[in-house]
Design brief:
This protein has 156 residues and is of the alpha+beta class. The longest helix is centred in the last third of the chain and has 13 residues, at 127-139. Strand 1 and strand 2 (36-48) form a beta hairpin. The protein is built from four helices and eight strands.
Amino acid sequence: MATTKKFLLKERRRSTRIEGRLPVTLVLRHGRLGHVIAGPAAGEVLDVSLYGAGLLLEQIRVENCHLFYSPQDNPSCVLHVEFVAAPNGETLSLPVRPVRFDRVLEEDASAKPFHLGVEFLLKPTEKAVRLLFSQVAEQAGGKGWWRKLVELFLPA
């Protein structure tokens, strides 16, 4: 029975996740480049990999849209994570697919935020993905084995 439990809890991620905090906003757009349907909603990156990110949000509903269910119920709705890219201050928009969400229930916290897992709709080699990944890595300290991983995807 112990081996079955180990198998069920086995890590299945495609790449390493880096923990760090980075403020972002989420908007729901009509298509990848269309107009904004709902948002912006303030959030924060908790961790990031080359394929997706874990986000912390105060609200999962913005206006009359649900940030998790609306993109799944309507294929023309695309969720975007927007962040300010350092050092030039350019705002980048990264289309994502929500894959999971949960409510963070802590007894001592008055606010009950949401944890939203998203998968990037862009390839790991795209500029916006590399910049988000490198910003979270730098914010986390820029040291260690994962820094080598970051440098593989940064422009020379």
